[in-house]
Amino acid sequence: MKLQLKNVHGWNPDAHLSQLVKSMPPSGIRKFFDLVNEMDDAISLGVGEPDFVTPWHVREACIYSLESGITSYTSNKGMPELRDCISDYVSKDMELDYDPAEQILITTGVSEAIDLAFRATLNPGDEVLIPEPCYVAYDPDVMLAGGTPKSVPTKLQDEFKLRPEELSSALSNRSKALLLSYPNNPTGAIMTRSDLEDIADIVVENDLLVISDEVYGKLTYDGKHASFAQLEGLQDRTIILNGLSKSHAMTGWRIGFALGDATLIGSMTKIHQYTMLCAPVMAQVAALEAFRHGEDEMLQMKHEYDLRRRMFVTGLNRIGLTCFEPKGAFYAFPSIELTGISSEEFAERLLREQKVAVVPGNVFGTSGENFLRCSYATSGEELIEALHRMEIFVNGLR
Amino acid sequence: MNEILEILSKNAKTTPAEIAALLGMAEEDVAKEIKELEDSGIITRYITLINWEKLEDNPVFAVLDLKVALQRKTGYDSVAERIARFTEVESIRLISGDHDLSVTIRGKSMKDVAYFVAEKIAPLDGIQSTCTHFILKSYKEHGVIPMERPKPKRLVITP
């Protein structure tokens, strides 16, 4: 039985809420979460995190640090060794140099870094251009920072890349920043260097700041991740947000980092020191170990995702859910247009009738309607069984 | 490493069709390559990894360290090959360090294994000393942790 607290004095908590929070819609994922939770034997392709446990050497390094009593605050910006390490790593990996003293901030997950980037740069009414479909937190985060999110639709025929025409038509005189999130959740789309070059002129002409969430960057298949910051002369205009959650299977550790111009990172640090103080020290210790010795296991996990990606995408196309080749992250984004039902109805019926959970594409923005997000960060056996059940469901619709 | 071998080394029951889907190859090509790997002796056998501890009359395993007096010309090979022929011997390896050969023995009981060592191995020409270690518990075999704790559950749907 649910405990009902009686409000004896007739006090109304609702009247004390901020108008902004009240106006924010609840996440569309919640409903499915509750539905799946009621079922025992559902296969979930709805999970946005690796199915691997954090590599043992990383966990062991953290355990050792706890045994050694490393439990205090760190510098607001994060442990100097970790910032040095990230600076070296990014210099080798992306050929970009960031001063660990002023241009790197360690955050509590990329989520915090996104919030900081918006809050440090937005004034009331400033618009942030957000290509969609996209991760569900960007719009609310912009709103909480006092800005206005402005969706920029991307399309299947462009493989969900941001095209200059779409960007141009979304511009206004309030456009302040462009949010890029490639490799993309939920579509698995990537932007190559030449795709980024195509939009660079518009960014510069309109003096946009680029906030680039690259948390799936390491999960780029067939080639290397490209960042907007790598384009000639555009490093200072770009704030890179990244972390170890997806690449190193470290979602629960909540560790991320921001790289950028010293003024921007300094302002983000100002907010961070008042609201977070510092990222958890045990997670920072673990991150240091992951950066120093985690490359091999990270590549092994990536290889495993790549095998499943090929198998799963081929399977989706075979059963009639046409799917473009996702070149990054661990999501496939098949179209269900041929079935004639909405993504939400498809997802709900697939769950009830065949016990496979996927996330309807419209949760990630209106341009996600008629698509499903299916995560292949799930074991090969489960993916094969899920494909089998989806085939039965799709055949039943014909 | 060869990607087909990598997949088969983890699960020998993966079918050519499944491997083809994982690697984006044609099924016939996968089957052909597996045949070649078998014919060339790179794949020697498909065996089953068994968690013996779950069985009631589980066998006893021992690791036997041997010091060997080298024989002219044949080196370690003649004595090692001789020991390898016993069906009780699961594996035999030449090792560096204090001992020369490391032998894994499988028997029905400790007595059985002790008898085998005393009667069959120790008296062999060239064997200088033996040291028998009975295996009490296995924590990992062939890269697999047999009694691994179940994976902690993830949230069923996350953004």
Key terms for this structure?
heterodimer; A: 398 residues; alpha/beta; Aspartate Aminotransferase, domain 1; Aspartate Aminotransferase, domain 2; three-stranded antiparallel beta sheet; 12% strand; B: 159 residues; alpha+beta; Alpha-Beta Plaits; 2 domains; four-stranded antiparallel beta sheet; 31% helix; extended
Summarize the structure.
The complex is a heterodimer of chains A (398) and B (159). Chain A is an alpha/beta fold and 398 residues long.
Element layout with pairings:
The complex is a heterodimer of chains A (about 400) and B (about 160).
Chain A: H1 19-23, H2 30-37, E1 43-44, H3 56-67, H4 80-94, E2 104-107, H5 109-121, E3 127-132, H6 138-144, E4 148-153, H7 164-170, E5 175-180, H8 193-205, E6 209-213, E7 238-243, E8 256-259, H9 262-275, H10 281-293, H11 295-318, E9 331-332, H12 343-354, E10 356-357, E11 359-360, E12 372-375, H13 380-397
Parallel strand pairs in A: 1-10, 3-4, 3-5, 5-6, 6-7
Antiparallel strand pairs in A: 2-8, 7-8, 9-12, 11-12
Helix pairs in contact in A: 3-10, 4-10, 5-6, 5-9, 11-13
Chain B: H1 3-10, H2 16-23, H3 27-39, E1 60-68, H4 77-84, E2 89-94, E3 101-107, H5 110-121, E4 127-134
Helix pairs in contact in B: 2-3
